[in-house]
Input
Amino acid sequence: MREIPSLVEELRIAAAYAQKVRIKLKTGEIIEGTAQLSGDRNRAKVRTEDGSLWIPYEEIELVERLIKLN
Output
């Protein structure tokens, strides 16, 4: 399992470049959406097709940035 600071850094990078992310939660659930900048120190903000979600960092197991190659 990755450390929370590295997860937060991946989300910050993704948000800075408006990249899509795939987040795997400790429950096994997968969330895909666009990372957004969050002023909250304890939660990530992700915009999905269903709206924005706030995900507590301690619930995140893995963050993958989805980069489009042209």
